[in-house]
Structure formats: structure tokens, C-alpha cells
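User: I'm curious whether this sequence folds into something compact or stays loose and floppy. Could you predict its structure so I can see for myself?
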Amino acid sequence: MIDWTQMITPAQQMAAADAHDRATLICSRLQGRLTLGPATCAALDAIAADPDTPWAMRETILNAVEWRCNSHAMDQLAWLLGYSDAARLALFRVARTVSV
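Assistant: Here's the prediction. I'll summarize afterward.
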């Protein structure tokens, strides 16, 4: 007999997959920039050039070798660029597939 109380719904499966991806997705800075495109990269570069941008954020934008989906810096950059959590997750999912 099936215990229906132990069944995982499709929504729960998707939420678990999203949580896993948020915790593990990594892409190179180049993969991320190629996925973002020229307009968003120009916005990133403007943030890095702004003298009011904190030094650590400027260094992250300009010099990070890899981007981690679950990092605080990515939280801040996504917010600055107007990306929702779902959009950021989608970006990382695409970026990791870019061959460079």
C-alpha cells in the first residue's frame, strides 16, 4: 500500500532542485558575462567604475575567477541589476553550459 503522506509533490521536487542548484552552481566570470550580454555587462562595469562602490565589490566585479550562485556578492549584484532570485538561478544554469 502507498503511503500518500510520504509522496513528494512536483512543486516540492522543483523547490529541492532549485535549492540544490543555488548551493552548488558555479560559472566562470567569462561564462557569466557572455550569458549576461553587452548591456548588462556595461551596467556591471559602470558599478565597478563608480567611486562609491565598495572596494570589495569592485574587485569582485573586475577580478573574480568564478561566480558562485550562493555568494553574498552575487546576491548584491543581482539586486543592483534588478534580477529576481529565479532570474539569477536561470542565469547560472545557462552560464555553466557556455563553452569557452
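Summary: The longest helix spans residues 10-24. Residues 27 and 36 are 12 Å apart (CA to CA).
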